[in-house]
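User: structure tokens for this one?
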Amino acid sequence: MRILRIALLAAAFLGGLYLVAWWTVPLVAGAYALLRRDSLASREAAVGALIATVVLLMRQMLLPAFSTLLSHLGQIFPVPGIVVLGLSLLLAMVLAFTSARVVTGIVGTVKRR
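Assistant:
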């Protein structure tokens, strides 16, 4: 059941990332934490965001412009392009985790009152 939840969550992240923009990651993670109301929601959101970002990057790697983008990023930042890809994965995970954690904390605080 948990794998199915993470797969559906990853699909929601993927749809938001592909159709809208990066800022849908914290929105989807926050909505998921609000619906789930569990301490595991933040971890599941982080894994779902990671899966969605990996799938999106794998799709982008099929395009010829992707290698050009990586070479340009390597010229802009003093690190290899693969490090920039890793940082984008980390960013998606951190955005999802912290958003879900904040919502879980707020819901927990409201429940106690």
